[in-house]
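Entry 14. Ran structure prediction on the chain below.
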Amino acid sequence: MKNLIKKLLILILVLIIISILWFSLILSKNTNNYKFSEGKIWPTHIFVPYVNEMRKISGSFSEDGAMNLEKIYKYTGTKFFYLSFIRAIPSDTINKNDELDWGWGGKRKLSNISPNNLEYKGILKSINQLRKSGGDVAISFGGPKGQPFWVATQNVNVLFNTYDSIVKLYGLKNIDLDIEGKGLNIKDNIANAKAIKELQDKTNINVSLTLGVLPKGMIEAQLNVLKVYLKERVKINIINLMTMCYPEHTILSGENYGTASLSAIENSAKQIQKYYKKYLNINLTSQEAYEKIGATPAIGFSSNKYPIFTVEWAKELLNFGEEKNIGRISMWSMNRDIKSTRNIGVTRMYEYTKVFDKY
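Output, structure tokens:
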């Protein structure tokens, strides 16, 4: 009798183990083999808001914790998005594929290392749903915090492999490099620019370069980064200016925090003309320089250091963008504008999107 019970217990244990393995295999097939529809070549003169994929979304716009992009498209008509930010996982080294391990926000759980994480699967599903509805995304690398790829390593081959694998995984036609903070180091960016040039040669990927700016234009740190990518012959489709967070002492005489963005764009256009001539021997017309520019305000309330960026200022930026025919308008962030995060400067859902989506 004891032997029979023992055999039954062993049999039950074996069946449990088999069931767990089988269930894990099914989950793995559902995520590791996730197939994206291909991205798109974007038109010019469009509105492309940033979506913070590092912050879990709750409520009606949640796709298992990720932003439901298709739903936003259906509500607003906005169909192109920058998804931010993918970074290196800080504690990891170069993996067996000669690539950096990466994640959204540098988080292991939001990466292909954790393919069965519900929130990560939500990101994948949301992108696919949007593309099937006619929209598309660019992935933004870097950002103000964490560890950008080019800070994690200056090995050009590793950088290229990492970008290339992500471009293939997500079916990307467009990427964004958000270069700020500790990501501004010139030697790091030289390595990154070489990798991006190699990536462009292989995939013809469109690249936007996101840089800080002041009302007087880009300062030395940003101009030096622009110089690096031009000298390495990276084709920059958009130089996306972070028209935001201006210290009070930088506001030019007769201007306010909102109109300062117009000066930032105007002065940056002149700098872009100068740098394209100096480093590529290309004579851009004023119109061509403006078409290279994207403008990204931080809508609503950012911190006590800065005034609230109002809807009225957004309208001024839109009108100026239309007058100068700039290449792109963006904003930080769609999360604020759908009120998925509390922001005292945003009173109604979509109030900024309704302005900028006219572009």
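Residues 19-32 have pLDDT under 50 and may be disordered. Will compare against last week's run tomorrow.
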